[in-house]
Amino acid sequence: MREDVLLRKLLADGEGTGEERRFQLLNGCFRSLRNANTVSKAEAVKALRLIDSLELSMRKQREIAEMTKRQTKEYEEMAERVDKEIAISREKMTQAKVDLAAARLVRKNRKEYALLVGMIEDLPSRAETTRKLDEIQEELTQQQERQQQLEARLSERRNHLHALNIILANFQKLLADEDNELSNDTPSTEIGEKDDGDDEEHSHRERSCDTADVG
């Protein structure tokens, strides 16, 4: 454990010329100065030099601490300025995005406007459009009249066809009635002819009998 402590002290003290080494030397000098019989002028001068060196080192450390504090403050102020600049840059970027979107919209509107202008220029004038509309209206009126005439002819032909169908139906009915009458008259005619034959045969027999009686 002691070796680890010494190793850490040596690593912190470097080559043994640091503050801890000076305090150790000063402590040794104070111990030797407590014994008045063994005090020497060289040791007293050495102790004073160590004290001066420690005071100088303390001033240096104080200056370093103050300088570090000032630098820390400057860094903090610089960080604040950087943060403010970053915030301003972000606001500028946001505004730039808005401006870019507006510029794109304006550009799009300009393109659409140019396209509409081209389409309008390609379209005929109002007078020509009115003339074409009048021509189309006149042609439409003629087509309507033709359609009415065709519908009238078609209606007339339908009426004729309906009348013809009625005539054909009546004619077919008449033919059917005549066929029925003919079919009904045929059996009675055959019966009448048979009766006439029987009467003639009976008369012939009667004449034969009369002839026999006369003889």
In short:
Keywords: Coiled coil, Nucleus. By secondary structure, this protein is mainly α. Helices cover 93% and strands 0% of the residues.
Rg is 73 Å
Task: Give me the secondary-structure category.
Answer: mainly alpha
Unreliable stretches (pLDDT < 50, length at least 5) are: 209-215
Proportion of residues in helical segments:
over 70%
Please trace the helix and strand order, writing H or E for each element: HHHH
Main pleated-sheet profile:
none
The counted number of beta strands is 0
Strand content: under 5%
The number of helices is 4
Give the termini distance in whole angstroms. Answer: 197 Å
Question: Average pLDDT across residues?
Answer: 75
Question: How many structural domains does the protein architecture include?
Answer: 2
Q: Can you tell me the overall shape? A: rod-shaped
SSE layout and pairing:
Elements: H1 2-13, H2 19-34, H3 41-122, H4 126-214
Pfam families: THOC7
Protein name: Tho complex subunit 7
Coiled coil: 126-160
Describe this structure in words.
The protein is an all-alpha fold and 215 residues long. The protein has two domains: 1-121, no CATH class; 128-177. It is 93% helix and 0% strand. The protein has four helices and no strands. It has helices spanning 2-13, 19-34, 41-122, 126-214. Helix 2 (19-34) packs antiparallel against helix 3. The longest helix is centred in the C-terminal third of the chain and has 89 residues, at 126-214. Residues 209-215 have low confidence and may be disordered. Residues 201-215 have a biased composition (Basic and acidic residues). One of its GO terms (cellular component) is THO complex part of transcription export complex.
